[in-house]
């Protein structure tokens, strides 16, 4: 209907726009590993070893495929391994968070890539066991948390070694089955170092 009170509505409508091309569907996200088992490269361990001295006997309680023990042993540093499951590397099958877990005699440092969802608990457990130093490979975003702020302010975090490039951290089972390759990365990671008796602010360094 047209007229003074009912103008031709077709003239009032905006011109038709060309339809936007549809974006291709993204591949479904891979399910998170039930144990949060994600594998660091030996290079990531070596870069820390180039920046951070290891003294005495070291334990990796999340040894997985054994990358950390292998790199340290190749450098002449004695390193033991344990894990909650047998992932093909020698070592004790044990739950580091279990109240009955006993630190092997002589261990003075803990170096590990803990499951991220329980990372704070793993670090605190290592510190409670009284070791001299704890080196944990964590997402850089581990720093930004209101909930962890009081814990950080208690002291002990001595150094944060930030990777200047993104690490590849594929799920261990997918890596072993050949479903993925250890290349590229989308998340920023860093090595966090807690030192017994450290009360000052943490120092920041970068790894190439």
Polypeptide structure, described:
The chain has an eight-stranded mixed beta sheet, with helices on both faces. It starts with 8 loop residues before the first helix and ends with a strand. Helix 4 (119-128) links the parallel strand 4 and strand 5. The chain is of the alpha/beta class and 208 residues long. It has six helices and eight strands. It has helices at 9-12, 42-51, 67-74, 119-128, 149-153, 172-177; strands spanning 57-60, 79-83, 92-93, 107-112, 133-139, 157-163, 189-195, 203-207. The longest helix is centred in the N-terminal third of the chain and has 10 residues, at 42-51. Residues 25-30 have low confidence and may be disordered.
Q: What topology emerges from the helices and strands here?
A:
Blueprint: H1 9-12, H2 42-51, E1 57-60, H3 67-74, E2 79-83, E3 92-93, E4 107-112, H4 119-128, E5 133-139, H5 149-153, E6 157-163, H6 172-177, E7 189-195, E8 203-207
Parallel strand pairs: 1-2, 1-4, 2-3, 4-5, 6-8
Antiparallel strand pairs: 5-7, 6-7
Question: How would you briefly describe this protein structure?
Answer:
The protein is α/β, with parallel strands linked by helices. 21% of the residues lie in helices and 21% in strands.
Q: Can you give the helix content as a percent range?
A: 10-25%
| Cα separation of the termini | 72 Å
Query: Averaging pLDDT over every residue, what do you get?
Result: 84
Largest beta-sheet characterization: 8 strands, mixed
DSSP E strands, number: 8
The global form is globular
- Helical stretch tally: 6
Order of helices and strands: HHEHEEEHEHEHEE
Cross-sheet strand order for the largest sheet: 3-2-1-4-5-7-6-8
Please state the structural category. alpha/beta
Kindly provide the radius of gyration, computed on alpha-carbon positions and rounded to a whole number of angstroms: 25 Å
Taking pLDDT < 50 over at least 5 consecutive residues as the criterion, the unreliable ranges are 25-30
- Classify the beta-strand content into a percent band: 15-25%
């Amino acid at each position: 209907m047209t007229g003074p009170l009912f103008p031709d509505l077709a003239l009032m409508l905006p011109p038709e726009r060309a339809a936007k091309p549809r974006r291709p569907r993204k591949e479904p996200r891979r399910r998170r590993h039930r144990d949060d088992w994600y594998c660091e490269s030996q290079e990531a361990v070596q870069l820390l070893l180039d920046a951070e001295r290891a003294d005495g006997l070291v334990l990796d309680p999340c040894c997985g495929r054994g990358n950390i023990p292998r790199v340290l042993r190749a450098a002449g540093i004695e390193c033991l391994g344990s894990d909650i499951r047998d992932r093909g590397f020698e070592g004790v099958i044990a739950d580091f968070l279990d109240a009955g877990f006993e630190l092997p005699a002589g261990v003075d440092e803990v170096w590990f890539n803990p499951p991220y969802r329980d990372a704070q608990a793993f670090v605190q457990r290592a510190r409670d066991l009284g070791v001299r130093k704890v080196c944990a490979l964590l997402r850089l975003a581990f720093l930004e948390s209101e909930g962890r702020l009081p814990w950080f302010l208690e002291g002990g975090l001595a150094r944060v070694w930030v990777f200047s490039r993104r690490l590849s951290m594929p799920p261990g089972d997918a890596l072993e089955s050949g479903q993925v390759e250890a290349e590229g990365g989308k998340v920023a990671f860093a090595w966090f170092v807690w030192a017994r008796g450290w009360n000052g602010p943490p120092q920041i360094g970068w790894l190439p």
